[in-house]
UniProtKB/TrEMBL annotation:
InterPro entries listed in its UniProt record: Cyt_P450, Cyt_P450_CS, Cyt_P450_E_grp-IV, Cyt_P450_sf, Cytochrome_P450_monoxygenase
Protein name as annotated: Cytochrome P450
Similarity field: Belongs to the cytochrome P450 family.
Keyword Phosphoprotein: no
Species this protein is from: Podospora appendiculata
UniProt keyword terms in alphabetical order: Heme, Iron, Metal-binding, Monooxygenase, Oxidoreductase
Cross-referenced SUPFAM superfamilies: Cytochrome P450
Length: 519
């Protein structure tokens, strides 16, 4: 009986303790926290469910809500109990690229969202990130990427062969799928020495592109409920298949393919023969990225584990495919939707041929301005990607009120490319596609606000590869006469933030009819 009495008191006691803890937490967050005086809605300061509502139930709209909060409260806003957003383009470098002597870690909770915890993109600590990135830097330097020009032109030939077949057959072509295949083939061959040769199989490219979209739509769920994903991964495969959401199943399939490639590298096995292999002009003696990491004397064995290399490869392939595909698709859509822009680009390209060196293309003003504008409206990583200063205060002065705010060490501080790239003071009529904004002295000065690749220690490692792919692809594709087919601005405009830009969720991509070569 005494035991029953004690157990009968346990539940009420637990409820009382929970109520006391909840009340204390609310009081602390609203009144006692070092962030209590930061402007913002009370619900955002009180609970993460405010962010969760805009992330999961609307869905993926918090980036737009944050802009509304800045319009209401000013340039500094508390957007979660422990995160502060600063919508001041000139403060970006203080948060992300403060210079030597200043450390910036990633927010450990936000880094869980993608699930590649040991990749350089998700590495939290400043020093560990630098250690992991250093062996990769030489592969992605401008000089190294320039040596890829023969492979780029080989893939452009395949790209154009798809257009020629479609023109002959009168078929509709999905440019989003072709650009996905193009970017995926390039990054896989660079990373592993082989690819799936997706340009030979556009329907497979379509399936994979849609699968990656599904994976990315799981990012917000993983951010708020990463423990569910981790729990499912602990189940036996036969059991987990019954409970795993489709997006996580897609990710498992994707990572299984990456793991096979990593196993081949670690076991010194030759790469498989590309399906319907296309004649290649690449120097086959050049080491792939991951064979080089495997053989690197500067990396300890712990940094060469299958899991570590799988995380790195998964992020490199996903980011190197999806972001490049998006920028190319955005650029090409707007060129087709605005014939006067295409005419200017073709006029500039009139003195070039398909054999024009990459180094020459990179110097063409209107081509590079078109690329810059596509990057701007692609927004790079659309998520906030906050930083933490582990050992110093971050001090911000509101230019409107002169109020000084001191954010103590450990505070999660962020802005987003959306807040900068959609800033009408920097980019008048910000959602219009206007390459002219990047030309002339004003355009050169504006480049400091081009943040699609971020800046500082975490600047996108694939920036030079992406720009090289865009230059050769746009120069070649501008020579074809295409007409948009059942495609509108909603198919390329940012409507959701799933870590990268996502247009309307039922979009099929940018589709065209191919009339033949232009002119």
């Amino acid at each position: 009986m005494a035991l029953l009495g004690a157990s009968g008191l346990l539940l009420p006691s637990a409820a009382i303790l929970l109520a006391i803890y909840t009340a204390y937490l609310a009081i602390y967050r609203l009144f006692l926290s070092p962030l209590a005086k930061i402007p913002g809605p009370r619900w955002a300061a009180l609970t993460y469910w405010y962010e969760c509502y805009y992330d999961l139930f609307l869905p993926a709209q918090y980036v737009f809500k944050i802009k509304q909060l800045h319009d209401q409260y000013g340039p500094i806003v508390r957007i979660t109990p422990d995160e502060v957003s600063i919508a001041d383009p000139d403060f970006f470098d203080t948060i992300y690229a403060p210079g030597p002597g200043h450390k910036r870690d990633k927010d450990p909770e936000k880094s869980k969202a993608l699930g590649f915890s040991t990749s350089i993109g998700a590495t939290v600590g400043h020093d560990l990130h630098r250690k992991r990135r250093e062996p990769l830097n030489p592969f992605f330097s401008h000089r190294s990427i320039a040596r890829l020009a023969p492979k780029l032109h080989d893939k452009i030939q395949q790209l154009e062969e798809n257009l020629a077949r479609a023109a002959a057959a009168g078929d509709v072509v999905n440019l989003s799928d072709l650009y996905y295949a193009f970017a995926n083939d390039i990054v896989n061959e660079y990373c592993f020495g082989h690819s799936q040769n997706l340009l030979a199989d556009p329907p497979l490219a379509h399936v994979q592109r849609k699968n990656v979209d599904s994976v990315l739509r799981g990012v917000k769920f993983n951010l708020h409920f990463s423990w569910i994903r981790d729990l499912i991964h602990r189940f036996p495969p036969a059991l987990s298949a019954r409970f795993t959401p489709p997006a996580i199943r897609d990710m498992i399939r994707f990572r299984t393919g990456i793991r096979r490639d990593i196993d081949r590298v670690l076991n010194h096995a030759p790469p498989p023969t590309d399906k319907e292999a296309h004649p290649s002009t690449t120097d086959t003696t050049q080491q792939s990225v991951f064979t080089s990491l495997r053989d690197s004397p500067s990396l300890p064995d712990s940094e060469k584990s299958p899991q570590r290399l799988e995380d790195e490869a998964t992020l490199l392939v996903m980011a190197g495919t999806q972001s490049t595909q998006l920028s190319l698709t955005i650029a090409h859509y707007h060129l087709l939707a605005n014939p006067q822009l295409m005419a200017r680009l073709r006029a500039e390209l009139a003195t070039t041929t398909t054999a024009t060196p990459l180094s020459t293309l990179e110097k063409l003003p209107y081509l590079t301005a078109t690329m810059q504008e596509a990057h701007r409206l692609g927004f790079g990583v659309t998520g906030r990607n906050p930083r933490v200063a582990p050992d110093e205060n971050i001090t911000y002065t509101d230019p409107q009120t002169n109020q000084v705010y001191v954010l103590p060490p450990g505070t999660s501080t962020s802005t987003s490319t959306f807040l900068v790239h959609a800033n009408a003071d920097l980019f008048p009529d910000p959602f219009a596609f206007d390459p002219d904004r990047w030309l002339g002295p004003a355009g050169v000065a504006r480049r400091r606000y081009q943040l699609a690749f971020s800046r500082g220690p975490h600047i996108c490692i694939g920036m030079h590869l992406a720009n090289a792919e865009m230059a050769v692809a746009l120069a070649a594709m501008a020579r074809w006469d295409l007409r948009l087919f059942e495609t509108g601005a909603e198919d390329v405009a940012m409507r959701h933030d799933y870590h990268i830009l996502m247009p309307r969720l039922d979009s099929e991509g940018v589709r065209v009819r191919v009339l033949g070569r232009a002119g």
